[in-house]
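Subject: Predicted fold for EF-hand domain-containing protein, 182 residues

User T.R. writes:
Posting the sequence so we have a shared reference for the thread.
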Amino acid sequence: MMKLVHLFGSSSSSSKKDNKVKKRRSGAKSCSFGSTTSSSSSDESVTTPRSVLPPSVASSSGTKKPAAVTREDLEVALRRVVSSEEELAEMLAVAEAEAGLVLEEIAAAAADEGELKETFAVFDADGDGRISAEELRGVLAALGDELCSVDDCRRMIGGVDTDGDGFVCFDEFARMMMHGRA
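User M.O. replies:
I've generated the structure tokens; pasting them so everyone works from the same file.
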């Protein structure tokens, strides 16, 4: 049987038939994309691609940060599964529209988080990353609320302090502020 390994860029030769195939394919580009899995027996060897994405994208799948997929990468992958140019164009248009919405949401979230961090910093007077009852009392007094006591501030903090440490960390503060907007 003819070895299919030649189609995926691996080298192996054992028969005259294989050598003829190699000669015909010698000028052709490799069709390998990303990682491959090989299985072999004494007489035949087959390599199956594990990804339709180019090696630059497929090889980074084990990293913590996901690899960016370019429009060209997506087009290459989609060409392998769609049946017409119209279908390809439609799928690319949908992907680009959704990517645009995701980028808008990320930008809005970053802006919101930036504003929240600035607001949190006003309350976190000592800059230790948490708001104490005393710090909350100081901000309320500066805003003109002289009647609110430190005990009142402890009770307010208790309402948002999910980890029970007696302070409001940034995550708890952000959760409280976002919940208040909804």
